[in-house]
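Dear H.,

Thanks for agreeing to be a second pair of eyes. The structure we're designing against is below in token form, covering all 394 positions.
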């Protein structure tokens, strides 16, 4: 079968010398101080202010945008401002047929890791904040633990997958100070029979091993470490503030040694940059060596704010790929199906070669128990688990 030609760029692009003063995280999109600043624009760590681009005046804002505009600034460091965002709930309903979970948990809005390919940049636009401020304005959801406790008591969560970290990383640098993710896990640990996954790019997840062990004993738990490449220099270009790949793989080993079901997600696989046979082989081998139980990967897709941001990033860092990216992504937001099928097969072959699965083994169903109340759930009732229709885990 004919294969779709892979995109390749000259290796010297990745080895281009950089001056010590160059910032890789916020150089292409300076921030606009829509909600005021905590830090003087003259400080070295602060991004260069830019004019507001078509956002509404505060008097016209409603919903989450109004809450974001009035959120107090709690801290500022490394060119990122942290706002305290009041929210009504932590457990969010997800009705998309493209994903195999009903509930999502994102303790933060925005992510300081600043991954140039991040698909979630558009979520800032719901708050009338430009998507290119995704890494420079991070919103911490207030009272996360208390709200999670209440939500778990109210929602029919038995048999449903609760996915933590679907839009923003739950272990980004803000977690060190605000501990929103830990407060959520503390409430999950008080219950039994839940179905929980955590996805992160950070080795900081091992900080919560004490809670993860309790959750793993009482509920179905899986942890996904997202690793796009084993090459530290390339990872730094793509994911400016995320921990090094070796630190993430080290977290896989530590989690597995503690009995926590853990796998590696090669997501996204970036055409022409991380999709080479040797690159994916090295990643799969490293994941297997770290003890990963599953290995999965999807090709990059881009939309709205993410598309604009990434095309400009490619133009600056990988200029020979610009034309191909424009041809592929500007119209459909995705790579051609023939290319995606080839990458899917490549990942499948590597998974088989290194003896890893494609998804966590959820094990037998367990009855959900709440410290507040007991629910009697009848099979097929409105509060029972939804059929999965054999949907793929990723």
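And this is the sequence the design step returned. I haven't edited it by hand at all.
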């Amino acid at each position: 079968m004919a294969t779709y030609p892979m995109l390749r760029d000259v290796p010297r692009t990745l080895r281009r010398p950089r001056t010590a003063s160059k910032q890789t995280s916020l150089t292409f999109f300076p921030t606009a101080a829509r909600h005021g600043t905590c830090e003087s624009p003259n400080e070295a760590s602060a991004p260069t202010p830019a004019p507001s681009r078509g956002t509404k005046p505060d008097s016209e804002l409603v919903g989450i945008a109004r809450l974001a505009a009035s959120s107090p600034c709690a801290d500022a460091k490394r060119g990122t401002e942290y706002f305290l965002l009041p929210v009504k709930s932590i457990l969010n309903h997800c009705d998309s047929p493209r994903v195999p979970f009903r509930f999502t948990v994102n303790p933060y809005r925005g992510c300081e890791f600043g991954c140039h390919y991040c698909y979630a940049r558009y979520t800032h636009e719901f708050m009338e904040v430009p998507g290119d401020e995704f890494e420079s304005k991070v919103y911490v959801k207030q009272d996360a633990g208390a709200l999670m406790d209440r939500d778990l008591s109210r929602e029919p969560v038995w048999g449903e997958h609760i996915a933590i970290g679907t839009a923003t990383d739950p272990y980004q640098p803000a977690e060190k100070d605000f501990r929103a993710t830990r407060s959520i896990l503390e409430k999950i640990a008080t219950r039994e029979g839940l179905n929980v996954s955590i996805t992160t790019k950070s080795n900081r997840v091992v900080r919560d091993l004490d809670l993860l062990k309790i959750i793993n004993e009482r509920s179905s738990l899986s942890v996904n470490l997202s690793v796009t490449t084993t090459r530290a220099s390339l990872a730094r270009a793509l994911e400016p503030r995320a921990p090094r790949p070796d630190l993430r793989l080290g977290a896989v080993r530590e989690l597995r040694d503690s009995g926590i079901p853990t796998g590696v997600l090669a997501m996204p696989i970036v055409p022409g940059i991380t999709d080479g046979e040797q690159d994916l082989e090295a990643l799969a081998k490293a994941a297997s060596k770290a003890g990963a139980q599953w290995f999965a990967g999807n090709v990059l897709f881009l939309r709205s704010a993410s598309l604009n941001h990434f095309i400009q990033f490619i133009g600056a860092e990988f200029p020979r790929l610009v034309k191909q990216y424009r041809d592929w992504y500007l119209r459909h937001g995705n790579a051609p199906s023939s290319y995606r099928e080839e990458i899917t097969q490549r990942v499948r072959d590597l998974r088989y070669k290194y003896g890893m699965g494609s998804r966590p083994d959820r094990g037998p169903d367990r009855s959900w128990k709440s410290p507040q109340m007991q629910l009697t759930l009848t099979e097929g009732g409105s509060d029972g688990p939804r059929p999965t229709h054999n949907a793929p885990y990723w």
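Two observations from my side: The longest strand covers residues 262-269. The two ends are 26 Å apart (CA to CA).

Warmly,
E.
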